[in-house]
Amino acid sequence: MRAHVVSDLETLKALAHPLRVTVLGELRKHGPATASELARAIGESSGSLSYHLRQLERYGFVVDDASRDGRERRWRAAHDVTTLPDALHETAEGRAALGVIKNVQQEHLTRQLAAAEQDPDGPFEHSDYFLRLDPPDLEQLMRELHEVVARYVGRSGSHEIALHLMALPAEEP
């Protein structure tokens, strides 16, 4: 599984646009596409999508797809997953950019939970844990979980699922 670790504020800010996060997700989920195909899929203009795709390319999130036919440029996600380290929380700009990304993720999760309600026979598994961990333990846990998930990437099973791995501060009683 190819990962892109965002280590600087400029790269984070380049990603922190709701349309860019959505486009990157579409490319990861459905594979290579042209700006026109993406525009139809998400209801945006192809001109707008072209601009945002070039910005994503500039910061290493998308690349030209080698399978293009020469008429229209096809794009693909450069990585399977993007990691946003804790250090990005250290500035107000970093927190604001992460807030945009979290809002888009929250919208996706809300839609996916609603879709699960519409399909009571579809796959659904839910667990929650409350752990007390020091930062190195949390890093190790997440690294191990990502390794497990990586073993399942690329399979072509009968159900498409969205898997969310989140480590969040527990709410105070």
UniProtKB/TrEMBL annotation:
<protein>
    <submittedName>
        <fullName>ArsR family transcriptional regulator</fullName>
    </submittedName>
</protein>
<dbReference type="Pfam" id="PF12840">
    <property type="entry name" value="HTH_20"/>
</dbReference>
<dbReference type="InterPro" id="IPR011991">
    <property type="entry name" value="ArsR-like_HTH"/>
</dbReference>
<feature type="domain" description="HTH arsR-type">
    <location>
        <begin position="1"/>
        <end position="95"/>
    </location>
</feature>
<dbReference type="InterPro" id="IPR036388">
    <property type="entry name" value="WH-like_DNA-bd_sf"/>
</dbReference>
<dbReference type="InterPro" id="IPR036390">
    <property type="entry name" value="WH_DNA-bd_sf"/>
</dbReference>
<dbReference type="GO" id="GO:0003700">
    <property type="term" value="F:DNA-binding transcription factor activity"/>
</dbReference>
<dbReference type="InterPro" id="IPR001845">
    <property type="entry name" value="HTH_ArsR_DNA-bd_dom"/>
</dbReference>
